[in-house]
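Sequence only, no structure available. Ideas?
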Amino acid sequence: MSVEDFPANLLEFESRFGTDDACRAYLIQLRWPDGFQCPRCSSDRAWETARKLMQCAVCNRATSVTAGTLFEDTHKPLRMWFRAMWWVSTQKAGFSAKSFMRELGLTSYQTAWTWLHKLRRAMVLAGRQRLSGRVEIDETFVGGEDVKGRYDGRKHVVVIAAEENGKGIGRIRLGHVPNASAASLIPFVENSVEPDSVIHTDGVWAYASAEKKGYHRKISVITPDPARASKLLPRVHRVAALLKRWLLGAHQGAVSNKHLQHYLDEFTFRFNRRTTKHPGKVFYRLVQQVVAVKRTTYRQLVDQTVAEP
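Reply:
I predicted one. Tokens follow.
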């Protein structure tokens, strides 16, 4: 499939994906861009059965295009999932499960909540390219109330990395971490930024060991005047302000500790594609990632936990 093969607008989307067969054909092209390959014997010889399965001509295994993906065992039509992905992709701001439920005509809040969290998990793929060049890094807090500007035990620590792109912001990464210690921050740096990059941080000791990991560190001492932070590290503070506004506007700030990372992933997905001129291309990227992630059940979503500070 060509990377340009996506609907240009809502009218084209509705015309193209009005049936489950059309949606299934699109998934087949995305999942096997070089042609079908049997997961058992790797044969490329197959035909589609009456039950809409790919039947291998060599080992006779029948494979569903949705098997092993986010759509596995879904009881809803694929065209409804496609409508959900289009709506999620084309919204400029975030939204609640209630608004998602109303938009799609779902009758169950649990279904709407589950679908949204499944799609959020598809917004980040393992092995994605790390940030590089010059990267600002700092922490912020979300949730709770300010207590003289300090962490009060009810807030959640979010670390932000933002590429410098001239005077602007390139790509970003966000991480929900247990605390602002080196044990939490250095792994985030390693997962988010390519070695040999310049990381621009404040003067806290937690980043001191980054140089031993192959990073060049630029330090801007912010204390004793915290107001200097937005001037010395303008990109991460701009991202932090946008993130808090987004959480407040879309979710009324009510994001649980358990699921915070996935909301951060959604914000990152949207922010890093903010300059995309074609909404269909964002939709294409989301569908592409959806067929690459594994199935997640409602119970797995509910039971997921994040270490507390």
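The first strand starts at residue 46 and ends at 48.
Hope that gets you unstuck.
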